[in-house]
Design a protein that fits this description.
The structure is a homodimer. Chain A is an alpha+beta fold. Chain A has two domains: 9-69, Arc Repressor Mutant, subunit A (Orthogonal Bundle), CATH 1.10.10.10; 80-130, Dna Ligase, domain 1 (2-Layer Sandwich), CATH 3.30.1490.190. Chain A has five helices and five strands; from the N terminus they run αααββββαβα. Chain A has helices spanning 9-20, 27-34, 42-54, 98-105, 127-130; strands spanning 58-61, 66-69, 80-86, 92-94, 115-124. In chain A, the strands form two sheets. The first copy, chain A, has a three-stranded mixed beta sheet, with helices on one face. In chain A, helix 1 crosses helix 3 and helix 2 packs across helix 3 (42-54). Chain A is globular and about 50 Å long. At the A-B interface, helix 4 and strand 5 of A face helix 4 and strand 5 of B. Strand 5 (115-124) of chain A pairs antiparallel with strand 5 (115-124) of chain B, so a sheet runs across the interface. Chain A binds a DNA duplex through helix 1 and helix 3.
Chain lengths: 132, 132
DNA sequence: TAACACCATGTAATAATATAACATTTGTAA
DNA sequence: TTACAAATGTTATATTATTACATGGTGTTA
């Protein structure tokens, strides 16, 4: 059973904003959008983001410095993330492919190092942009 | 045959520094280190870094905002990069595993999107840090 | 050689992203 | 009901990256 995380006030405000968004949100864009709700400082945003990432409710898209809500209801894969990124329209989707995640989770390299976490970002053109 | 890129003065200075380093270097740390060589401004560093990334001589470690020299003599895999990162000592190595790169290069997801590029970062503890 | 394209350089200013430090408050569990 | 962990609030500052504009070198070609 998944541990239930009761989000705090700021965490909830920020998660809801990210969850409603159809694109990755950047920290200062989030800040701008929640100022009417009483969140005034960058640090308040970053603290909530850190926590949300930690518990797997959101993921950071490292190549874009932006955040999206986890698309896996269970949110159990925050240590094994994969995304597809369209280099034209910047649409980002979380990839949920069990073969891929199994392959990567079990990956062991020559040094014998076993990994506890990975992040994979694929780049290309999405359907829409390809047909333009 | 690989295209030969003749590095410009600034590009060479900055590549040499990164290449000699045993750890990923950050842009402003690079700037600090090359000021004696007449490179004074962040933009000079970023321009060289951009070019070096583009031609595959170095790679950016996205999760660390840092740069390392490509470990593959051919430097042909700048569109297919994988790294191992020790979360304790921050040692970063480029993974050169043909099975992995084949698997990922041929990866096609449900949407039929074919990717032209990927970047993968594995996290864990390196041998040394594990045995501490 | 003049005109041009192309790439690289130099410099100043500023934008965008992220953290440090410190004080206070809230939730929760012993 | 104390005591601890987590979250909040606020100011300042550190770090990372880009915009804008001017200059310089090199090769092509008309």
């Amino acid at each position: 059973m998944e541990k239930q995380h009761n989000l705090s006030k700021n965490q909830k405000i920020i998660f809801d904003l990210i969850d409603k968004s159809h694109e990755p949100l950047k920290a200062y864009s989030i800040l701008f959008n929640v100022q009417k709700k009483g969140i005034n400082a960058p640090l308040q945003v970053y603290r909530a983001l850190d926590k949300l990432v930690e518990i797997g409710k959101i993921h950071k898209i490292e190549s874009r410095n932006a955040f999206i809500a986890c698309q896996n209801s269970s949110c159990q894969i925050s240590k094994a993330t994969a995304f597809s990124i369209c280099e034209s329209c910047e649409k980002v989707s979380e990839i949920n492919n069990s073969k891929l995640s199994k392959y990567l989770s079990n990956f062991v390299d020559e040094t014998g190092m076993k990994y506890s976490k990975y992040n994979l970002e694929f780049f290309g053109l999405c359907k829409k942009c390809k047909s333009k």
